[in-house]
Amino acid sequence: MTIETTARSVATEATLPFTLPETPTELRASLEAGNAIAWYEPVEIPTYEPHDPSTFPMYLDQRVYQGSSGRVYPLPFTERIDSVPTLRRWNAIHVENQYIRVMILPELGGRIHVAYDKTTDYDFFYRNNVIKPALVGLAGSWMSGGVEFNWPQHHRPATFLPVDSTIETHDDGSVTVWCSDHDPFARMRGTHGIHLSAGSSTIRLDVRVHNRTSLSQTFLWWANVAVRVHDDYQSFFPEDVRYVADHARRAITAFPQADRPYYGVDYQERARDTPGADRLDFYRNIPVPTSYMVVDTDHEFFGGFDHQVGAGFVHWADRRVAPGKKQWTWGNAPFGQAWDRLLTDADGPYVELMAGVYTDNQPDFSWLAPGESKRFSQYWYPIPAIGVAHEASPEAAIHVERGAQFSAAVAVTSPQPAARLVVLSKDGERVVELSSDLTPGVAWHEEFPLTYEEGMAVRLESAIGATLVEWLAPVEVDGSAEPWTAKAPPAPSEVGSVDELYFIGLHLVQYRHPSRSPLPYWTEALRRDPSDSRVLTGLAELAFRAGEYDIASGYVKRALTRVTEFNGNPRNAETLYLLGLIESRRGDQHAAHAAFAKAAWDAPFVAPAGLEMARQYAREGRYEAALHDLDELDAVAPDDRRRGVLRVVLLRRLDRLTEADSALSKLLNEEHLNPTLTFLASGRLPADGPTALDVGLELVHAGDDDGALQVLAAATEIGPTGSGNGMPLAHYHRAAILDRLGRAEEATTERALARSADRRWCFPAGLDDHDALVAAVRAENDPVASSLLGMLLFDAGRRADALQLWEAAIRAGGKDSLLHRNAGLASYNVAHDDARAVEHYDRAIEIDPSDARLLFERDQLAVRLGETDEQRLARLSERFEVVEERDDLIVEYAELLVSTGRPDAALELLQERNFQPWEGGEGRVLGAWDRARTALGLPIAEPPLSLGEGRPLYEAPVARRANGEVDYFATSLPDLLLFSRSE
Fold it and tell me: Residues in domain DUF5107 (predicted)?
């Protein structure tokens, strides 16, 4: 996929909204016949391009992001956006029927960028007429507008990366646009289909999330819908919503009228001065960045309504799996307005109305078992001038007035001739019945000739009597009961039981807590009960994920002693299954097979353990046995999408080519955009290097070494991109396969090729990378393999091991700045060797003196080592042309100018630059500007727009207490991004 960017810049202030292309001539007849249509056609949009990511891995596991860990490794990290836009041709997919039009951008995570209601001439989602990312995303770049599909974490790690896509046309006149990719962390697969039907104004989203790994993984899933707002835009939740919660449920307040301070704002006090200012459903009333998530509701809808335009939208989803309903706003005040300017040029403020599936809060992670897939759908549709919806379904929405005049307004999503609007008494008697022909985009308003009485219902029926939507008045509940709020767990020594210690540790793992580790809780649990099987299994899994197989084996065998002490057939086989995985990685395939076989006695592990045994047979060349196992698994546990690739490989190995082709064709129809199936069918590989590696490694696990070698050879030619770089790793994986096949000379050649390959943004992760790099280090004194393995281990928490590898790589001749930077970071954080840290950082800067991140990190090290302001200023002044490349360095430089008596120079420096703040790191630029002005005797003033920040009206919660302790619910800890010493 090519990217075309003009050389000329565009003055976006004078740019009209970008134009959607006309419907292609060859599709117009189908559209006019009432069908939905879809096509690819590029769109030119003014775009602020992100700079290339940093070449250094960012170890940000202690960064707080959306209430959980802001760990970004192995994704490259973007730190700067162009300040001047260019006109870029974006690959776009257009979907249209007679009622709505949608534009999808597969180069930006497959997001919906435009959702336009043709019937009301209204963009019911926020339409951003520029692509203007700001530093909000997990890996940097993030843009506002449309719908962002977030998984397995918020905001989506791949939100600014391309996805694979395809258009599927159905016989019923509907179309689905499928988008799919592998998440950058656990390499799970996420696929979403944006579906438009003939004769319907509804966007249906069909989602498939699949854990293609051998371990359980955590995830959350939120659709992040943006809507353009102003003083008269109202968000609505179901009428039974009484409370909303902050992130992690650390605080609550009533909804829609706040009944207590929330995010530091006393809404009741504000309402005393301005009646109605305590209403949280109007953006105009919220002065600070605020999240509120629905705590409890029995209903399945929510949305927003524009009272100026007389239009809005409804979201609907099955609340059994989709309870999450949330609004987020930057706030209607200078602080939030500064962020609005950073994210658009002329389209104004927005709020996000998010819908969560298998989650109702952020963070609120659920589990995907090995091989498990989850499938769900969500629905959005525009509504005309009915007002806020009081009840909604996928077929219709209704608004009911119960004041002096009892009335209702309804809107439908498909034509409903002779629809009936019925009022039922509290006894269920039909007391009013009216009829009308309804179409999408036209509201039906009716006043009822009676007075509303408690217990009445209003129902919209189709001509044949099917209920389209029914409104029932919310049931009054006891107002004294409030929902629970979260509390920080006590210190391990203060926890009352081993059971509680185990579950606190599990919570910290599941929710990816950024500043609390499960280890102190599980260590205390073992002090009290050294054989607690749950804790030992949890510790075994942590060690296994980090590649510490022998340690993991010790833990899991201790756990099995307790598990099988009185019962050789345990009710839960998790520990046996984990033993199988561990022994397989350790090379004892006999022990692994025995563990898997026993684990398969337990129903939840039939599928994952069965697959592992079938893969073992395949790798051993026992193809008939493997195929027999797959047939047996399909009969008793059909839901594991990983079997498809293995089946096709086995059938081909057995020369049953017709069966293989038939199986492959069926799988491709079921699994849209599966890259391994695509390769098996056509030989075509994804353009993304890490995903190409996934294809090759999946073939390795299926016993297809020849196919894997072919894929990995092609992967060595896929250059580095914003998603990473698999080139050196492809060589190392080829070397590992060739060594196993007894082709040692070829393996040696591959390792040599790995050492000469482009290593930019090559950040290895996962156990397959771990094992290939361990093999390379053992085979030769390979500084590149040692450097790469060190990066993987440092991210995995094995930081002392990482430092040893980096020092060994340097002794073996490694000379690049990345290696010295990593060793310097570890020398400070792990070894507490200040002198060695300085030595490494200074050597890194000597190798690459133009790299501004190196200079910034060296200055941060200087702060922690207590260097004087004069020393720091002198070092930075020597490379001021490098300092100018980074906002944070400019801020540090300005602070040093103030502290050394040159506030006038600091103020001039700050005011001549356009800054781009990080979300969560706001206040640094403004604070430096204030200090410079104060030093000059100038009063506090409103900052210039160039600072990129507005002055907050209220103080944010403090992340770090006065005693240095990190608050359990901290929302931002920018000072713990890299330099954080281990005990």
Answer: 72-383
